[in-house]
Specification:
By secondary structure, the protein is mainly alpha-helical. Among the domains are: 2-37, no CATH class; 101-190, no CATH class. The protein contains five helices and four strands. It has a two-stranded antiparallel ribbon. Strands 3-4 form a two-stranded antiparallel sheet. The longest helix is centred in the first third of the chain and has 58 residues, at 39-96. Bound molecules: zinc ion (ZN). Zinc ion binds at residues 6, 8-9, 11, 26, 28-29, 31.
Length: 206
């Protein structure tokens, strides 16, 4: 509602806001005029516009926040996928470069198992298993140019060879079995095919 005096007779007039700038006629003196935009009316319009701007700004901020959250979720998923891929590659690389890993673990199990009490046949099998695993490790160590391991496991193979068995007492065999098991463990970890030169470790993510 705008309130204003008639320009000619000074009668107090009023009109709805929608009628601002619309032609009208004074009921008292009959003069024609345009309903004026009063100061109150302009202030009210400014307030409404400001409220609309604030509301829009809030909506924009909300939309941006949502977009940010979504982008973060995508980035997190991508990071997870990259980490999983890296882990898979590392595992593949770890096992792929250690063909002797399973034989080493089997030999270890037999050697540590030898600490229990078994029939004589067990110790015969133990010699075969340990000797075969040691030959494999020595061969691979030679291939991978880890000479120290090749000599060491060559000696183990000879010590455990089943064809010309070395006869020692049980008290001597027990520590030898444990030490040999440890050697197989170390071989499983430290003997590995060298990485190919062109395979870069710091390959940038796709
Ligand atoms: Zn008038």
């Amino acid at each position: 509602m705008v309130k204003f005096p008639c320009g000619r007779c000074g009668a107090r007039l009023q009109a709805d806001d929608e009628l601002v700038h619309v032609p009208g006629q004074c009921p008292a003196c009959g003069v024609e005029f345009l309903v004026p935009a009063t100061r109150q009316y302009l202030a009210k319009v400014a307030t409404i516009k400001r409220a609309a701007r604030v509301k829009e700004a809030r909506l924009t901020a909300k939309t941006e926040r949502r977009a940010t959250v979504a982008a973060r979720a995508v980035a997190r998923r991508e990071r997870c996928a990259r980490a999983a891929e890296a882990t898979r590659r590392a595992a593949q690389s770890f096992f792929g470069r250690r063909l002797h890993l399973v034989p080493c673990l089997i030999a270890m199990a037999f050697l540590l198992g030898a600490l229990g009490h078994w029939p004589y046949a067990y110790y015969k099998i133990l010699r075969w298993v340990t000797c075969a695993a040691a030959i494999l490790v020595a061969y691979l160590a030679c291939e991978y140019e880890q000479r120290w391991a090749a000599w060491l496991f060559g000696a183990v193979a000879i010590l455990f060879n089943p064809l010309l068995p070395v006869h020692l007492t049980r008290d001597i065999w027990r520590p030898i079995d444990v030490i040999t098991a440890v050697l197989f463990f170390l071989a499983a970890i430290f003997i590995a095919e060298p990485r190919p030169k062109q395979e870069s470790e710091t390959e940038p993510p796709p």
